[in-house]
Amino acid sequence: DTARAIDLALHKVPFSDLRNEVFNLGTAKETSVIEAATKITHEVSADPGIITHVPDVPGQVKRNFSNSEKALKVLSWEPEVSFDEGLLTTIAWYKKHPKRCMEILKR
């Protein structure tokens, strides 16, 4: 979905018209951080006990919800992939590319 939105921004409307514009892209379904972490641990067969709860800090994100109305209006973009489907696809990619995964984790 994100790559498709970028492609639309580059080609559908004159790119110069989008200078300094910001687009939120999302499924329009609220997802909490703990919900995402729990799904990830389940899909990678990890013990959910590895999820560490830390005290809140200023600006702490507890949940995420993206309003994509502007992307729909300007780019004619709307999500086609659900959060769960995108998460499974991402996890499958990392499982298929373990060397790349380890490179990222070393950063």
Q: List the strand order in the largest sheet.
A: 1-2
Q: What Rg do the Cα atoms give? A: 17 Å
Residues in helix, %: 40-55%
Summarize the biggest pleated sheet. 2 strands, antiparallel
Order of helices and strands: HEHEHHH
The total count of strands amounts to 2
* Chain oligomer state: single chain
Helix vs. strand class? mainly alpha
Give the overall shape, derived from the CA principal axes: globular
**Count of individual helical segments:** 5
Approximately how much beta-strand content do the residues carry? under 5%
Low-confidence runs: none
Mean pLDDT: 89
N-to-C span: 26 Å
Care to describe what's here?
With 107 residues, this protein is mainly alpha-helical. The chain is built from 5 helices and 2 strands. Helices cover 48% and strands 4% of the residues. The chain is globular, with a radius of gyration of 17 Å. The model has no long low-confidence stretch (mean pLDDT 89).
Short summary:
The chain is 48% helix and 4% strand. The chain has 107 residues and is mostly helical.
Write the layout of secondary structure elements.
Blueprint: H1 2-11, E1 31-32, H2 33-43, E2 63-64, H3 69-75, H4 83-96, H5 98-106
Antiparallel strand pairs: 1-2
